[in-house]
């Protein structure tokens, strides 16, 4: 074998390793181990029972990665989450995101009468958040979140305390009753 052939094989092997779909793949088991620090607020397996904290179960990995990076950098404000995210490296973030994305989400419930009224109003959410509000890419899963948490976030967008794409304008168009109804409907989904 000539030195040229050896170099070609080495270049091919390196290219295969770098561009392989499994190169740098997240380690779900490592993510699960690291996720134990999240369960105190976000619930066992990331299914929140507390309306102050979102469920992470079933969130898109891209959304979780983006949010952890935003908390770490300070682009998204939360003293608690800044502290939690500051100790994470890129691989930790990827592993956590992959773990939570693979956990089956659950419905948080919601007032059935409000949910019935909110179904038609929530249709505007589906364009970005998926046809069943299951999340899509950088847009979070809304289905199954605690209704009080969703309402709190919509109010934060409405007041400008939280920013993100068109959400401020959308939230400003909603009445307090709209927010209750939409949040109940989305919370009732799985």
Briefly summarize what is shown:
With 190 residues, the protein is mostly helical. Helix content is 58%, strand content 0%. It folds into two domains: 25-105, Cytochrome c-like domain (Cytochrome Bc1 Complex, Chain D, domain 2, Orthogonal Bundle), CATH 1.10.760; 107-190, Orthogonal Bundle (Cytochrome Bc1 Complex, Chain D, domain 2).
CATH topology of the largest domain: Cytochrome Bc1 Complex, Chain D, domain 2
| Contiguous runs where pLDDT drops below 50 for at least 5 residues | 5-23
Largest sheet entry: none
In N-to-C order, the SSE pattern is HHHHHHHHHHH
Q: What do we call the CATH homologous superfamily of the largest domain?
A: Cytochrome c-like domain
Helix tally equals 11
The proportion of strand residues reads: under 5%
The rough form would be described as: globular
Task: Please tell me the CATH architecture of the largest domain by its name.
Answer: Orthogonal Bundle
User: Rounded to an integer, what's the Rg over CA atoms?
Assistant: 20 Å
- Tally the beta strands: 0
Helix percent reads: 55-70%
Distance between the termini: 59 Å
What is the CATH level 1 assignment of the largest domain?
A: Mainly Alpha
Kindly name the structural category. Answer: mainly alpha
Give a written overview of the molecule:
The chain has 190 residues and is mostly helical. It folds into two domains: 25-105, Cytochrome Bc1 Complex, Chain D, domain 2 (Orthogonal Bundle); 107-190, Cytochrome Bc1 Complex, Chain D, domain 2, CATH 1.10.760. Helix content is 58%, strand content 0%.
């Amino acid at each position: 074998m000539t030195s040229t052939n050896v170099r070609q094989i080495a270049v091919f092997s390196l290219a295969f390793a770098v561009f392989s779909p499994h190169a740098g793949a997240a380690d779900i088991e490592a993510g699960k181990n690291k996720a134990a620090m999240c369960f105190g607020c976000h619930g066992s397996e990331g299914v929140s029972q507390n309306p102050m904290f979102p469920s992470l179960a079933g969130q898109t990995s891209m959304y979780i990665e983006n949010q952890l990076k935003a908390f770490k950098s300070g682009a998204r404000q939360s003293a608690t989450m800044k502290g939690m995210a500051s100790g994470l490296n890129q691989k930790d973030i990827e592993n956590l995101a992959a773990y939570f994305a693979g956990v089956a989400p659950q419905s948080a419930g919601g007032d059935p009468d409000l949910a019935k009224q909110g179904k038609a109003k929530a249709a505007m959410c589906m364009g970005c958040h998926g046809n069943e509000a299951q999340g899509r890419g950088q847009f979070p899963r809304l289905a199954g979140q605690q209704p009080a948490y969703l309402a709190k976030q919509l109010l934060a967008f409405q007041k400008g305390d939280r920013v993100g794409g068109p959400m401020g304008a959308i939230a400003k168009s909603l009445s307090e009753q709209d927010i209750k109804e939409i949040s109940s409907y989305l919370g009732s989904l799985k």
